[in-house]
Amino acid sequence: MNPFRAISDLFSNVKFGITLLTLLFIYMTVGSAGIVYPIHPNLFHPDAWTHAMLRQWRPFELTEFEWFHWWPFIALMSLIAANITWTTLRRIPFRPVNFGVWMIHSGILTLIAGSLWYFSTKVEGDAPVSRREVLLEITSSDGASKGVGTILASPGNQTQIQVGAELWTVQVASIDPNWKMQTADALGESAYSIMLMVEGPRQKFIRQVIAGRPDLAEDLLFTGNVQKPVERAVKAKGTAIVEPLFMARVEYASQHWFYLKNDLQKSWALYVRKPGDTAWTERPINGLPFYNDYISDRGHIFFAAVDEPIDPIDVSIPAVAANDPFPNITFSATGYLRYAVEQSRIARGLADSPLNPSMRVRIESATGIIRDFTLAAFDPRARTSEGDLICFRFVDSAAMLAQRTHEAQVQFTLEGVGDILVDLSAKPGADGFIPIGPVERGYGLKLDGAQDDIVLSGGEVSVAIVDMKTPHGEFRRWIFNDPALNRDMNASDNPDPRSAPLSMAPELGARYLPGIGRIPITLIAGPDPAQLTAVLAITNEIQVRPLAVGQPLVVSEGTTLRVLEYFPRAVQEVRPVVVPLNQRVKDVGERSSMARIGTSDGETKWLLYHDYVFDRPEDVLRGRLFQPTRIHLADGSEAEILFSRRRLPLPSAVALETFMLTAHVGGFTGETSTIRDYTSQLRFGEPDGKWSAPQAVSVNQPIEHDGLWFFQAQWDPPDAGQDGLPASAGLNFTVLGVGTRKGVWLQLTGAILAAIGMCYAFYVKPVIKRRAIEKSKNAAQIRPHSASALTVLLMLSAVFCIGNRNASAQDISASANTQSVATREVALMSQGGAITSDAITSG
Predict the structure, then answer these.
(1) Distance (Å, rounded) from C-alpha 409 to C-alpha 422?
(2) CA-to-CA distance for 374 and 344, rounded, in angstroms?
(3) pTM of the predicted model, to two decimals?
(4) Which CA distances in Å does 494 have to 223, 452, 460, 499, 501?
(5) How is 424-439 classified by DSSP, letter by letter?
């Protein structure tokens, strides 16, 4: 058999085409909707079936975009295109009745070609564009030096600028995106106002700068008055600017990059630079997974389940850019976590590790409530639990242990009497004062408040604030654990920490001795680092009990305390914790991903994923992470690395003029449902260095510029502030979706052609066929009469020929043949044949 004929028959076979379409339908369904399969022997059990995305399983690790670019899909589409083409050419004649089918098939092929063009060139990502940045220029007092800097307009961002011997600190204190101007030429108009907190070598003040109106900049001064903490410099000093050496100017914050979407096509990237540099160099990470966890050792993460799969990876990340700072060093990704968070945990240090008493404690109640606390005695932020329920302290002597096991005291030294120890919880006398020494001496105190272990820049202090009664009169004394810090003042005053110590009763020295304080449970380590003591102040009676690791301690009825771990020389270990599936936020994307990256002969660390790559802390957008990681290399040097996604340069810079939020009736309430539309007014950089006119981009109104389409993707919502950041009114930046749309017109042409072909096939083709049938019926009604007349004519001719004696034998034979043909024609027509009268006439 001819193989070419066999292939031709196969590709023109309708059943083969239907088979290909069925396989394509199954492939597309599995890729888009996933699969459902049983996991329980009883198929009718409520939990017998589960849903999963096959393309996300470990053997595949494909996004939906990648699934539809995989070779099986390309092969199926190629076979279908070949089948449609050859079947059309071989089996469907090109005539009017089949024009619809030809158009449908041509439209499908055009659509396939357009889709191939579209998806093979498809690029999609997002670009964050901040509204403004502030350019700073500072001149030193002597005029010999100048310092410049920039800071992104985002509440909480700050920078420091060294100008000669002077240090300036500038922070974005607040932003009002809709500040109403008060000047006569722009009364009531909205403007973008930025408040800068400036701390210079001479004074601290606030500088207000306004976008587009540098002439309206002015300073605000601190008054020290609680009722009116600041006032305008123009009122206090008669001038709007009190520090002319400090210049601040608001400019556009242009964006030059857009970041590829990982859920379209995996575009992981590692960014590297030398410590101290500001520019990053990109290294693509090809082959890093997206949906599943991959670790080579359970010890690399905390709280790993016993059945946590050990599935190591080793993805090479070589240098590809010519300006890579480490051209001869290849990094590797040896672990990946889809959804994890960093957690710090104490661990046992080495014998020569510094003393760092730390413990993990569990509180269990009769109702089954369990709470775990991690406490570190030397860390002011970690030695007291949330809610001030438990505190952990270390003492290095028996005297300190005794002090920490009773109420706070003040040790006085009175001339002629000596040392006097006064318990601050003692019962006061009739006058409300606790006596100090002999009553006849006339000394007493009344506790106003106490605070232990206050963290200051120079260390920690504890203080008791008491009202003193002496023979000299009454006053207030701040008594510290360091007597050199004591201050005396009138009861209505506050002490000036910069003033020299003052004593209104110099004959009465005082020192504060902190006790158990107001914490219900105090845990103490020492003086032997292995010794643990619990001090309970839950009832009126203070209880002191020894404590051992692992043994429960009853602190009240139905409540026990247990020390799970205690390390005198603890070290802090930071590792990822995999978040359980039922606790994960839906559609969080790759934001909670982590990768373990390092070098084979150097250091390896887990890296947090970053949405965007910022060069400096001053450039960070609000709510976005910027935490570069330093790792040691084999040659002893260090590298700074950051885990993110690939970025591509924009054809021209993009700047944000304004961002407008359109709400439904009633205004924006904080809920997304109250928002009607988001609109960004964009400017694009032009070749002459200027900015284009503003162009509006909203959710459903994208615009095209330099071959890329821009659309609204995210925005900057208001927030109350957290982690030390001030509150924000929002509207300070926008996030634009950026992508290409090549081949769309070809796709549209194919779809239109196929639609026209369908209309032709469903509406025009039936008309053509109906007319053909009617024409055939009309012809069939005329043919019998014509045939009968023709038969009579032929018979008469035959008779005439026979009767003509001079007729030749050839003429007679021709007449006989003609009569025979006519007879057959009549017979066919009587049977409903399709021979036309034209055919008969020609016959």
Answers:
(1) 6
(2) 10
(3) 0.79
(4) 17, 19, 20, 12, 13
(5) TTSPP-TTS-EE-S-G
